[in-house]
Amino acid sequence: xxxxxxxxxxxxxxxxxxxxxxxxxxxxxxxxxxxxxxxxxxxxxxxxxxxxxxxxxxxxxxxxxxxxxxxxxxxxxxxxxxxxxxxxxxxxxxxxxxxxxxxxxxxxxxxxxxxxxxxxxxxxxxxxxxxxxxxxxxxxxxxxxxxxxxxxxxxxxxxxxxxxxxxxxxxxxxxxxxxxxxxxxxxxxxxxxxxxxxxxxxxxxxxxxxxxxxxxxxxxxxxxxxxxxxxxxxxxxxxxxxxx
Length: 244
Fold this sequence. Notes:
Elements (H helix, E strand, L loop, with lengths): L1 H26 L4 H43 L3 E5 L9 H12 L10 E6 L12 E5 L2 H8 L11 E4 L3 H14 L4 E4 L2 E5 L5 E4 L2 H6 L16 H17 L1
Helix pairs in contact: 1-2
């Protein structure tokens, strides 16, 4: 879907460039009657094409959003575990179960509570450990474990939700703009906290642009001075300075 979206954007840009070039040529035509007729037909064609392209673009965005939502629903029982040492012939199922039982304090949790788990990506020749995606049998177990993530503090192990690429990119952009402490995810949804404890739910990059960086700053309670009063005060200061 991302490639289709990019192709549509390229087509719209090409169409705009071509129509601009044709308009420029029409303006250079010597015969006024010919120019008037061609200009009317061209304007009608341009309007029709822009409406068609915009309509198609909206349909693609809706389809992309629906697919992303369905993909996120399929990941509802999943979590990502980061920071677990990676060794050859490791028993990932046992390692995750031990983390949940010992570090998170869920003593009655067993391997049967995990449907499947594996590391993401290909092995790399470095010290960096690949994250482990874990799919639980029950969403209630998943949510219970997710709420205990703060118990992993200072352990070198962290948890995150298994977001789609689209949501992951939006979440990273939100963290970059508003800071780590102001952004979080829950059940695959992205949230940003404002300065007055107002919570914003983010679902697209355009939502981020609607929240100005100024919103993160605390509003001041100082009264504002009218423009006329400011000008008068400035003149008074200059007059006093001149006398000195």
